[in-house]
Design the sequence.
């Protein structure tokens, strides 16, 4: 076991490429109920970068190791009297900080300690790229459709940002569950792509009226369930398009990307629609879900996601690997519109290098 490791650390709040530094740190020691994980792969999510900018739903404790979401690795050591897992187990670490909840170690480092109640064993045949992306986007899709909204087979589900990672996973999951989807995109050239993925209906806001098209598609029964990742005027249009008594769960605000003024993060709802038609708009944030779900419920949901991915129901796009030394290039890719593959930090290990 080495005594030191590499870690990508931000000394203060700021633009990630400017405040992150590659440092050498001591390998941590697990305490009771914890495991020491040798990290193999960990993604760069937009939320990871917003945490470093100080523009997310919780504040980092600087100096802070980057990466606040997920990783895959192997257990190298267990804390005293820690049971349930074994040294050598390959596991996904759901490193999403619970709100409210204790500090969680960042994943952009070679070793980290994690609560064993956040570790999910994964089979060796699941690639590092798939495994290290299990705990955020696929879990979000599952929770939105089945827990938050409880959409039933045959019931329309309306969603924005259908071309996003979560949007694509929602389409796959809905198809598996027999739920027809109405998918909103902003570019005409995305329409056929979403249809090919399994989207039943597609609305392009560049040249179509969202509410009018929803009415034409769903008819008199209307749509009662929706998920929105755009907010702003599009989020308001989704609310207006719902049938009376309908509800929309907002889980993102892509329309305000890089917005620094909190007052600009709005959804201009119509009071008449909310009052007289009793439509509901509420939020979903994975960090707060982890803050309210029991460890058992969280692991059960993650196990359900693992099964959906290993059975081929959910397909996670392969990531693009980067060593920590190339972090500026990886961050630039993460910030590039329509970038394609999600950048992943990877750590090679000759002892089990055939995992990838």
Sequence:
């Amino acid at each position: 076991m080495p005594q030191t490791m590499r870690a990508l650390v931000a000394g203060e709040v700021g633009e990630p490429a400017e405040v992150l530094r590659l440092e050498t740190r001591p390998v941590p020691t697990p305490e009771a109920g914890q495991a020491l994980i040798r990290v193999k792969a960990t993604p760069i999510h937009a939320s990871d970068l917003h945490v470093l900018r100080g523009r997310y739903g919780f504040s980092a404790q600087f100096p802070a190791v980057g990466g606040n979401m997920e990783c895959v690795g192997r257990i190298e050591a267990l804390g005293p009297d820690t049971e349930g897992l074994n040294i050598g187990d390959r596991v996904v670490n759901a490193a999403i900080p619970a709100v409210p909840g204790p500090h969680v170690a960042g994943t952009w480092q070679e070793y980290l300690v994690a609560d064993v109640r956040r570790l999910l064993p994964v089979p060796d045949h699941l690639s590092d790229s798939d495994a290290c992306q299990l705990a955020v986007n696929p879990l979000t899709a599952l929770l939105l459709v089945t827990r938050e909204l409880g959409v039933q087979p045959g019931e329309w589900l309306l969603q924005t940002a259908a071309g996003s990672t979560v949007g694509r996973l929602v389409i796959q999951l809905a198809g598996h569950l027999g739920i027809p989807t109405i998918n909103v995109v902003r570019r005409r050239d995305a329409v056929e792509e979403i249809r090919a993925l399994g989207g039943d209906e597609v609305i392009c806001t560049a040249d179509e009226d969202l509410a009018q098209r929803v009415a034409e598609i769903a008819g008199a029964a209307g749509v009662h369930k929706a998920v929105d990742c755009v907010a702003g005027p599009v989020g308001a249009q989704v609310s207006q398009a719902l049938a009376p008594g309908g509800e929309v769960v907002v889980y993102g605000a892509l329309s305000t990307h890089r917005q620094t003024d909190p007052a600009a993060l709005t959804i201009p709802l119509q009071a008449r629609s909310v009052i007289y038609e009793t439509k509901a708009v509420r939020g979903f944030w994975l960090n707060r879900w982890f803050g309210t779900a029991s460890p058992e419920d969280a692991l059960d949901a993650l196990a359900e996601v693992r099964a959906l991915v290993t059975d081929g129901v959910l397909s996670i796009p392969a990531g693009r690997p980067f060593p920590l030394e190339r972090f500026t290039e990886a961050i630039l890719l993460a910030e590039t519109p329509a970038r394609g593959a999600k950048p992943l930090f990877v750590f090679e290990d000759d002892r089990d290098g055939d995992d990838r």
Observations:
- The mean pLDDT is 93.
- The two ends are 22 Å apart (CA to CA).
- The first helix runs from residue 16 to 19.
